[in-house]
Amino acid sequence: MARHSDLYRLIEPVPDLRSEDGRGPVLVHGLEGFSDAGQAIQGVSEHLRESLDSQLIVEFDVDELVDYRSRRPHLKYSFDRFADYNEPTIQMHAVKASDGTSFLLLSGLEPDLKWDGFTESVIDLAGSFGVRMSIGLGAMPLGVPHTRPTNSSAHASDVDLIKGFSAWPGEFSVPGNVTSLLELRMAEHGIPSAGFTVHVPQYLSQTAYPAAVLHLVGSIARIADLELPTAELEKAAEEFTDQVNAQIAQSPEILTAVELMEKQYDEFMETRLGSDSLNPGGKPLPSGDEIGAEFERFLAQQTGDGGQGDDPQHNG
Question: What is the pTM of this model?
Fold first, then answer.
């Protein structure tokens, strides 16, 4: 088995993960932390585990990998005592797609510590299970309007893996994260690797954004040739958009800001001048934070309690 078993425990029995033609499984990895705008990564993991047949097969030692002081787990207090502890996890599940094809899902918190040991452990496990391709998931807040189709940036060790998908133009440096490091290390060990970073409207990035979850699930299904359920996600995305549109329609300030963002976004998509920004031409565009702050003020005025009522900005 793997060389770095001190960081995880294998839960027997492990099912046969090979497809009917003898191919090994695809590994989907989505770790929550640095890159999870709109709770998209969490949403994908929960959707796949809950809507499909899944079995826990690997549990990582979070005490070795997570700094609890940076992301403190919640404890539930009930009247006169502490009643429950929301224990953090990093797990790998064997999941069966709707057509019966098995794939692996690595989910949970992004490790704070021992990145090298963790990535080596995952790669060793991937080798043991015969993983044929890995797919990493990310979610980034950007100046995109919620009224336009959700897009993502695709990236891969081999450009042929992402034919038909949109890649981010240019060359630049980004803050490190374990999901991206896994994508790099997988390729270095001969495992084809790809990833998708979904674009989430910055002014909605602090709430659950179903359209981002739907887009990522669709991208996984397409690149890995898996049958994955989306009906529930489609309904949730439609209801969320209707709810946001109804609230925005009552605020002229927010409506104007979103319309301006739509115009700028459409111009960018039409021209594709090679800019590495979704704010082309240097034209003035309200930031996502400014629109989000205005959205919060509007909701507070409607509820009279700081906007903590039944609205998409605080639910999910």
Answer: 0.84
